[in-house]
Fold this sequence. Notes:
By secondary structure, the chain is of the alpha/beta class. It has helices spanning 29-38, 52-60, 80-91, 110-121, 182-185, 211-223; strands spanning 3-8, 23-24, 27-28, 44-48, 97-100, 127-133, 144-146, 149-151, 171-181, 195-199. The protein folds into two domains: 3-131 and 172-223, Spore Coat Polysaccharide Biosynthesis Protein SpsA, Chain A; 135-169, no CATH class. It has six helices and ten strands.
Amino acid sequence: MRILGIIPARGGSKAIPRKNLVMLGGKPLLAWTCDAAKKSKLDRIIVSTDNEEIARIAVSYGVDVPFLRPAELSEDSSATIDAVVHALKAINEEFDAVMVLQPTSPFRTTQDIDECLALLEQSAADSVISVVDVGGYHPARMKYLDGGRLVDPPFAELRENQPRQELVPMYIRNGAVYLTRTETLLKGSFKGADCIAYVMPADRSVNIDEPIDMIVAEAILSSI
């Protein structure tokens, strides 16, 4: 299989200004993903960005930036899948699948990337998506609010404060890896009908979205 790696890194960000270039452990956030991807078995890696500074930094870390993404695909409301399809068409090469590596997942490793590639190659699945155990935020423990009162949903735990070990394990996408066959991607889906889960530990599943996430990431780094 021939796999394209796409690192989507637009310039705009509200919660953390210039988020993709914020410094973490002595290098830009973007660089963590560039470094992990370059050592992987991906056949080609590109950065899709609308920002010239991001483009320059990506190139300085050894990743190709073959175009600048159109502004209409770089808004807060723009869908990532549209930017990915644009990139795939813009480079005009044949790939069996595309792996999307968001720069906001700095602790995803080269091994994570390669293990996802192996899972897809050894299967007939449409995709491989990384997830993490929800831990204490299990949906069975969640509540609705009705006029300030807590209301149990239909899927609530059987009894209040039921031990987590008794609940069916559940997982949430951690944003680190989206690996999708090209034919599925071009139909408008990262997941398709048959998706393999790649389970990652919590310490590699940090997703930088809010300032608190940077604090968590820096704490993880300091503990290594």
